[in-house]
Amino acid sequence: MTMNDQRPLGSPFSAATFAKDVVAGRDLSRTTAVVTGGYSGLGLETTRALAAAGARVFVPARRPSVACAALRGVGGCEVVPMDLADLASVRSAAAHIRDSLGRLDLLMAVAGVMATPERRVGPGWEGHLAANHFGHFTLACELYPLLAAAGGARVVVNSSAGHALTDIRRHDPHFRTGYDKWLAYGQSKTANALFAVHLDALGRDDGVRAFALHPGKIITGLQREMSLREQIDRGWVDEHGNVIGASFKTPSQGAATGLWAATSPLLEGRGGLYLEDCDVARASAPDAPMDDGGVRAYAVDPEGAARLWDLTVAATGAAPVFRRTRSQNLIPA
């Protein structure tokens, strides 16, 4: 995958597409899926759409009782306790899923945190990087045998236009020298995109392809750490909390790109791409406004992705075993 591959494919869908439209007419009755955050916001819309098409869906949840209530009446779902910021919890959830399934067709990393106050987790990791990236990385590694067994699995990682805020801060990824909540969020979203790039490069010979995406601007629980005043000042909502921001999507529209990534035949034989508005995103210039869309070169850079992978393996101790591939010298399975 190179920057030249970041070109729209002419998808029949768009920014206005709803989740149900993407899966309309699809039979997913033989599909197994894991959707993190699958009980609120975009994740809930994703779970509903997959389940309505017949998929069996596991929903890891930090708040299992809340998840069960939100998913009441949605068939084919199972809630599994899991906290992305606690790697022992991630490994326990993955073990339960491995005991329950022989293969996994879709891993959809939808959960995340944004613009939180400074938080340290584990051995002092910055909270955004830990939850948004380390947690999902570890979950994917733990579930990799199931993904490889599917013979055509897809991993779909929710990144964000916020990746345009910063590349990986290799000099200080955990903000030891001063915390900025937006740079912390932006770095974690760049990490999400780079994770998909390298996972795809390593997993493609096992039939595992990976994609990252920007779901669009949507008001969901993701903004729970932001004050109403801050959202008003940014022009997102009015004083009553009603969405007024230009080009904001509904949660269902926000879930559509992830579902397209998971199911579109246009993506067969492709991977490591950054998507938006139900299509492959174009490349963006380094100084382009974040709201103009597209993907920065550093967020899909294979060398940067490999460096982040090594950093993450060293931090988490997680590492799937891949088959030897054409392009990588890897430990044989």
Q: Which structural traits does this protein have?
A:
333 residues; alpha/beta; Rossmann fold; two-stranded antiparallel sheet; 9 helices; 36% helix
Task: Describe what this molecule looks like in 3D.
The structure is a single chain. The chain is 36% helix and 12% strand. With 333 residues, it is an alpha/beta fold. The two termini are 24 Å apart.
Radius of gyration: 18 Å
> How much helix, percentage-wise, in residues?
25-40%
Overall 3D form: globular
Q: What is the third-level CATH name, the topology?
A: Rossmann fold
Strands in their spatial order, largest beta sheet: 3-2-1-4-7-8-9-10
Mean pLDDT equals 93
What's the total count of β strands?
A: 10
Tally of contiguous helical segments: 9
- Which class of secondary structure composition applies to the elements? alpha/beta
Number of domains: 1
What's the CATH architecture name? 3-Layer(aba) Sandwich
Q: How far do the termini sit from each other?
A: 24 Å
Q: What order do the SSEs take from the amino end to the carboxyl end, as H and E? A: HEHEHEHEEEHEHEHHEEH
Poorly predicted sequence stretches spanning 5 or more consecutive residues? 326-333
Strand content: 5-15%
**CATH homologous superfamily (4th level) name:** NAD(P)-binding Rossmann-like Domain
CATH uppermost class: Alpha Beta
Largest sheet properties:
8 strands, mixed
